[in-house]
Amino acid sequence: MAIILSTVLSLVAVGVVNFCAFKILRAVQRYRKLCRQISHFPHDPGNVFWGNLLQHPGPSEEGLRYQREMVAKYPRAYSVWLGPFFPVVLLTHPDTVKTILRTSEPKSHYTYSLFKPWIGDGLLLSGGQKWERNRCLLAPAFHLDILRSYLDKKNKAADVFMKKLKGSAKREEYFEVFSVVRMFALDVILRCAFSYDTDCQQLGEQHPYIRAVVALPQMAVKRFFQPWLYNDWLYFLTPSGRQFFKHCEEVHAVAEEIIAKRREVLVDEAFLSQRLNSENADNCKQRYVDFLDILLTAKDEDGEGLTPLEIRDEVDTLLLAGHDTTTSAISWAMFSLAQHPEIQASCQAEVDDLMADRQSDDIVWEDLSKLPYLTMCIKETLRLYSPVTYIQRELTRDTEIDGHTVPAGCIVNIGIYDEFQPERFTEENASARSPYAFIPFSAGPRACMGQHFAVNEIKLVLARMLHRFTLVLDPNHKVEKTIVMKSPTGIRMKTVARLTEKSTP
Ligand code: HEM
Q1: Which residues does heme bind (predicted)?
Q2: Nearest CA owner, ligand 1 atom 7
Q3: Which residues does a 6 A CB cutoff place in the pocket of ligand 1?
C-alpha cells in the first residue's frame, strides 16, 4: 500500500515538475519572441534590469526636451523597455499613428485606471461593446443644435470671468492664470453638463465640491509618476491615497444628488406635458436641455437606458474631460498671445471688427466662424501646448506597424504634439498635411467627443477677453513647462483695459 502511495505521489510530483517546466519554457519562448519582435523597432540601448526607465528626466522641462529629441531621432517609431519585462512602442509619425488610431483598441489599463475610482467605466475608460453602445447614446449630447444652445451658458460664465478681469485690471495686479481660468472652465462644464450653478468663480476652492474636483486630477497625475502606488490598496495606505478616495466619495455624492433631483424634474415634466398637452409641453421645452437630460433619457435600440451608475460615471467623465483640458488650452493660448504682442494685436483687430457697433459683448453662434485668425492661433496653441500629450493603447491582437509586428498585449504610446506660427493653419497649408499630423483631440473612432464644445468655449472666451483687454506677462516670472502641459510655476500676467472698454459688464 505504501509503495503504491509513494509511486502515485512520485508520479504527481513528476507531473507537477513537468507542468511547471513546460509553463516556464513557454514563458521563456514567448519572452524571447517578444524581445525579437520589439528589437525590430529602433531604440536606445538600455540596462538589463531597468531598461530605459532611468533615461527619462521626469515630468520637467528637461523631460519635455528629451521627448522632443527622441521624436527627432526616431521620426517614425521607437521602442523603450520600462524594466526587463515591459516594452512600450512609441509612435511618432502620422503614418504609424494612423495604424492604431483607426482601430478601437482599448486604452491601456496601466495609466488610465488611475482615474477609475473617480470616473468609473465612463466613455473615456470603457472599451468593447459597452463603449460602443454608450458612445452612440451620448452622441446627441454633442449635436450642433445642443452645442448652439450652450453658447448662452458660456456667455453667462464669461460675464463673470470678464468682471473678475476688469477688477484685476483696475488694481493693476498680476494674477496666476491657470487657477482663474480653471474656475471659468469648471463653471462652464457644470452649467452645461447639469445646469449646476455653484458660484465657483467667486467662491473658488472654498466650495468643497470644487476643491475635490480641482484636487483629483492633480493627485492622479502625481500618482502616475509613483508606479509603486498603482495598486489601490497600497495607495489607500498613504495619506494622499485616503484623501483621493475621500474626494471621490464627495464628488460622487454631489453627482448622485443632482441626478436624483433631475429625475424628479423629468418625471414632473413628462407628467405635466401629458396632462396639459401642447401649451405646457412647450413651456417645459423652455428649460435648457443639458448633458444630464440626454443621459437620463437616452435609450438604445432595445429600449434600454443607462443604469444609475453608468449615468454617474458619464457625468464625472464629462466633468474631468470637459474642464481640465480646456483650462490648459485657454491658459496657454493667453500665454502665447501675451508672448507675441503683434499676433495678439491682429486677433484684437479681428474681434474689434466683428464687435463694431454692438451693444452686447456676447459671442453668438454665427460669430464663431468669423474669427479665422483667432482660430489659427487656437490651433497653434493646441499643437504647441497640447493639453493631452500622449495617448496609450493596449493591443488585443498582433498588429503590423511599419512592416514589423507588435504582439498582442503590448502597450503602444501615441505622442501628440517649436515657434508659435499660426500661419501653418491657413486653409492651403492645412490641406497639404496628413490629418494624423495634428491630433490634439486624437482621431478615429475614439476621438474626443467634446472637440467642438471645447473649441467654441475657447474661441468665445478669448474673443471676449481680447476685445476688452490686452494680456501682459509678468516680466519677473519664469514660466516652466512639463510633459503634462501644466506649469509647475504657473503663468502670471495682468490684463490692461483697452479703449473699447465700456461701463459693462
Ligand atoms: C481643449 C480641450 C480638449 C482636448 C485637447 C481634448 C482631448 C481629448 C483626447 C486627446 C481624447 C482621447 C483620449 C484617449 O484616447 O485616451 C479625448 C477623449 C474624450 N474627450 Fe476630450 N478634449 C478636450 C475637451 C473635451 C470636452 C470639453 C469634453 C466634454 C464636454 C470632452 C470629452 C471627451 C470624451 C467623452 C472623450 C472620450 C471619447 C471616447 O473614448 O470615445 N473633451 N479628448
Answers
A1: 448
A2: 441
A3: 107, 123-124, 135, 317-318, 321-322, 325-326, 329, 387-388, 391, 440-442, 446, 448-450, 453-454
